[in-house]
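Handout, section B. The chain below has 161 residues.
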Amino acid sequence: MKQTLLTIFSFFIFGFSFSQEKQIIETTDIDNFWIAFDKLKSATNQSDSIKIIQTNYIDKSTEYFKEFIRLRNFTAEEYVKLIGKYPKFWNSIRKETEKIKHRKDEIEKVLDIYEKTLPNFKRPNVCFAIGCLRTGGTISDNLILIGTELSASTFETEKSE
């Protein structure tokens, strides 16, 4: 996972010039996703499930994840459909996605290298969130948006579904 994450991160970095001194590496949205995911156990129907994802994940999104939602048009309905369709996948990816918040120092080191070696490089803000299995990430202005459910996938991730 470490190599995959750094490779994806590096892909988004090249060619960008940003205009701030200290970047933000945001991982709150990953925690919010798993809180919502756990609350789905109390849902009695699809409408309840959609409301849980909407209120506990999408409505609580950080400003950066809001941009990701806008760019990729993620909806609570799509999350509920995918969670229901691929339960083994979601359960298998959880541990790796939850580790991201403890890896900010690694990301900082990569940014340090880029800052020292790439002319005019300025540090971007980075948002790790859980997407809808259709984007490893994208960029917007001085922001890198990473679909952590894909970028944190490992050989152990359940893909049989």
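Note. Confidence is low (pLDDT under 50) at residues 14-20. Compare this with the example in section A.
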